[in-house]
Amino acid sequence: MGLSSEELQQHCQQILKQRRILNKFVILCEGPRSNSIQGRPSPQSYKRMEQLPDANFYNACIPNTWNQYRPQFFTCGDRKDVIDTYFNLLELHNQDINNSYLNPEKLFAIVDLDNQIQNIINEYDYKFSDTEEIFKHLYEKGKVNKENIKEHRIWVTGLIHKEAYFLTPELQSVFDNFLNTPTYEGNKLSLETIYMKMADDITSDVDLQDYLAKVSHRIDYCTGLDCSEIKKLCNSWKYEFKACKNELQKNELIYSLLTLKKAKNYWKQIKPPADTEIHPARFREQLSLEIAKFYSENTSNPKYHISFLLNYLSN
């Protein structure tokens, strides 16, 4: 359930009062908010937002060269809540500038790509009418379109949901070198095993089947894929992947899969070795921060969407 009008106002007022946002970028994102808003909100409770998903991951993706005036992240609930918070912050700031630490020129938001499209209310007069229009303009052939970044204040991820960034092919070495080797279905984690499982599951993905016609444009640069129907997409992806000998083309196919097929359930099946006592959820949290470290060290390549966008702000 989204924020009520009263909760939205309270949430925005608390953000505007945070002295730590002075002269800094403020980035709104999805993630839990109840622990911070229920009861009596305080600067301390809002500071703890940076430790909540998705803020903790995005914060850890900030380029490792960015040492001063680092962006401040605030979790705002679901996609609609994030977008509503963005516009309400601007409105409240303009109403009472003297009681706001916000610099409107440094306010941004990032929301998940999804097969279901989130509209942006017309009254805001924002240049892009929904999340899919943002995606079309912000990305080109699976990479951030650098020339178009300046026209966006609300970003959408280039892969479907944050968890897709936990399973990109470049991360295999991160998993192989992690202190406690991750496992998947009882075996040492192999990303290719997960990709094939994801591809097999395409035909039973009701959500993707319902929206395939609306979202298949995202991967139309992959000419070997047949998106005319769900079964043909499944079969053509597996055929192209098995036949591919070129690593760059293979990675392109993987990114296309992660653009349409949600990865969260597969990520949740990644566990620590059987001989360790760490809780799986805690293990994945540690692993996600190691993944974020990889991105924070790789900020100049537009295929690493989140760190590339954050790096844009630092320049």
Task: Give descriptors for this structure.
315 residues, alpha/beta, 4-stranded parallel sheet, 3-stranded antiparallel sheet, 14 helices
Number of helices: 14
Shape: globular
Low-confidence stretches: none
Number of domains: 2
Strand content: 5-15%
Helix content: 40-55%
Number of DSSP strand runs: 9
* pLDDT averaged residue by residue: 93
**Element-level helix/strand string:** HEHHHEHEHEEEHEEHHHHHEHH
Largest sheet: 4 strands, parallel
State the separation between the terminal residues, measured CA to CA.
37 Å
Q: What does this entry show, briefly?
A:
The chain has 315 residues and is an alpha/beta fold. It has 2 domains: 5-164 and 304-314, no CATH class; 165-296, no CATH class. The chain contains 14 helices and 9 strands.
Please explain how this structure is put together:
With 315 residues, the protein is of the alpha/beta class. It has two domains: 171 residues, no CATH class; 132 residues, no CATH class. Helix content is 43%, strand content 10%. A four-stranded parallel beta sheet has the order 2-1-3-6. It has a three-stranded antiparallel beta sheet with strand order 8-7-9. A hairpin with a 2-residue loop joins strand 7 and strand 8. Helix 1 packs across helix 5. The mean pLDDT is 93.
